[in-house]
Amino acid sequence: MRPNKSxxxxxxxxxxxxxxxxxxxxxxxxxxxxxxxxxVNEPDHAISSARHGHYAQYLEAARVALLAKFDCxxxxxxxxxxxxxxxxxxxxxxAPLEFDQPVRIRATIVxxxxxxxxxxxxxxxxxxxxxxxxxxxQVALDMASRRMCWVSPPVLWEKLGVLVRTQ
Length: 167
Known about the structure:
Blueprint: E1 14-15, E2 31-37, H1 52-69, H2 74-79, E3 82-83, E4 86-93, E5 102-111, E6 116-124, E7 130-138, E8 141-142, E9 147-148, H3 154-160
């Protein structure tokens, strides 16, 4: 669910995928891509590219858009009684990200049973060249008990459209 924006407020990125969709193999599509220019406001002058700290901002924009696709944003998950802090982030630099280079950032949910793991790929919009790979891991914390959940709560499974295991 997207917040209402006034017509004059700029869109930080353009949505590419818009809704939960079934792929040709009838599997759930747990990915989302955004397109945006690389905004390098403090370039690494030695190589004329983005500094390493900027990559986390790009990944966060893709993560927020992906979770919004499933109505799993921070506000919605807090309303369900859980918060989802990021406990781990891994990044692999593959090629420089040049100033104002148009990029596609694809975020894909790859694990959700015990933790929420998202894989990312930043690629050049024009050439498709892979520029950066990363992953992040989030865990559910029950807001009432302030304890980490060893199994992701059913609300996440429901919002992702996956079956909840019964024992």
